[in-house]
Amino acid sequence: MVRLKLFMALILFSSSQMIFAQNTYDFLRLDLSARAAALGGTFVSNHDDAEVIFYNPAGMKLLEGSPASFSFTKHLLDINLASVSFSTVITDIGRFGAAIKYINYGSFPEADEFGNKTGEFSANEAAFIIGYANSLDDNFYYGANIKFIYSGIADRSSSAMAADIGLHYSIPSEEINIGFSILNTGGQLSSYYSTKEKLPLDFVFGVSKKLAHIPLRFSLDFHKLNEGENGFGSRFKAFAVGAEFQLSKVLNLRLGYNNERRSELKVGTTAGIAGFNIGLGAKISDYRFDYGYSSMGLIGALHRVTVSTTF
What are the boundaries of each domain within the chain? Predict the structure, then answer.
């Protein structure tokens, strides 16, 4: 019966998340930040948002004060995701961060081998992260995360340990930021059964530039640079671009495009507006409220909200 429950859950995961659920730990690739998602996931060179810990821990070094952020994502069906992140400086030691990423897949009917309903069970996954960042040189920063990863289906579970390593270089005079990170390097501690699974290792490089005379910042990221079985050029297909336009001191408009997601979400020859993202950010008093909309084409859409502040 346990095998039947696991099989049912895996079938639903595959159908609901499409390409995002290639293995147990692929939830680590999902964007939870409304701001990052609206920018197509181009966040490896970010330097002013607590949720940069999920993309490049080195970016934490440029944060000011003790920022905190909470995000919620309404996924397909009854799948919900949430994250919380926090960062602060310890004098003469460096900047530390902590974060949690959580996903709940909802409830499933439990049945025996004859199809008789015997109850319900749930499935969820989580990552618990501790990060550190400091300076290497003038305008050059490094960072690292350690994360414990958990995945549970009914009464079965799987776990893993991983690390993220990042670099960030800033050119203040040109308002250019460059980021590079290696995400999810590690291994499985325990598996559901005898089959071991790999973590979604990801080499990411990105750059962002704020224009001199227009309140507009462009960003470009390349993901999965460690992959590319079909030749060198295929390593650059997983790119994303984003644009953040400051409409006023209070309101920001964001647009993003993710090339890999668009190609993977194509149904037949039709992709609709899959891979395109849009969002708004509003700063009210000491709080910032962000919303992000991500199209999955004919499949549906994701809605994300983030609330952040600085202590």
Answer: 2-310
